[in-house]
Amino acid sequence: MIYIVDDDDSVRNAISFLLKTESLAHECYNSAEDFIARSKISHPCVVVLDIRMPGMSGMELQKWMNQHNFKVPVIIISGHGDIPLAVEAMRNGALEFLEKPFDDQILLDRIQQALKIDIEKQAESFDTDSLSKRELEVMHLLASGKLNKVVASELNISTRTVEAHRANIMQKLGIRSLADIVKASLQHQQNNV
Predict the structure, then answer these.
(1) Residue 19, CB half-sphere, CA atoms under 13 Å: how many?
(2) 2-124 sits in which CATH class?
(3) Any residues with CB less than 8 A from the CB of 165 and at least 6 apart, and which?
(4) How far apart are alpha carbons 184 and 136 in whole angstroms?
(5) For 55, which of 91, 161, 163, 178 is 20 to 30 Å away at the CA?
(6) What is the reported pTM?
(7) Other CB atoms closer than 10 Å to residue 78's CB: what's the count?
(8) Bridge-partner residues for 3, per DSSP?
(9) Which fold has domain 128-191?
C-alpha cells in the first residue's frame, strides 16, 4: 500500500493516476491529520509525504510516526528545495527527498525500493505480542545466555516447563534457533523502551 499525504489536490491526483497506471494500491490524504485519523497501516507500505502542509507539517507527521512506533518507509516530496529540511527529514528516517516537479519514473523507482525495504524489515521482525508474560521472561533470560536449568531456578519453575515455554516461543514466533530468540528479545526490548 502506498499512502500519499499532500494538501495539493493536483499533486495527489497526479501521483494517484501514476500509481493506477502501475496497478499499485494506494490511498490519498489531504493532510497529516486526515492520515492519522483514517489510515490503517498495512505492510508492505510506503508513505509519500509532502513536507509543507497547513496544520501539521510533513516533518511533524514524520516525527509523530516515529514517536508512535509507525516503522514505515517515508519518501518526502517538496516544492521547496530546502537543504536543511532535507537533512532533517533524512535524520528522521526518510528514505528519499524529492523536489517537485519530480520525474515519474524516479518516484516509481523510489517507491519500489521502499516497498522492498519494508518487506525485508517485516521479514526480520517478530510479533512478540502473542507471547505471555512468562514466555517473555523466559525469552529474555534465554537470550541473555542462560541455560534452561538456570532459567528454571531463577523463575522457580521446572526445567521441563522452561523447555515447554521455549517450544511455545519458537512456535509462536516462527523461529528455529537461539540466535532468533536473541533477535526477538532485542527487538522486543527496543520496541518497549
Answers:
(1) 21
(2) alpha beta
(3) 134, 135, 138
(4) 10
(5) 91
(6) 0.66
(7) 20
(8) 27, 47
(9) Arc Repressor Mutant, subunit A (1.10.10)
C-alpha dihedral (74, 75, 80, 86), degrees to nearest 10: 60
**Buried b / exposed e along 112-139 (16+ C-beta atoms within 10 A):** eebbeebeeeeeeebebeebeeebbbbb
Cβ–Cβ under 8 Å, residues 75 and 48: yes
C-alpha cell at 156: 522457580
- Report domain extents, the chain: 2-124, 128-191
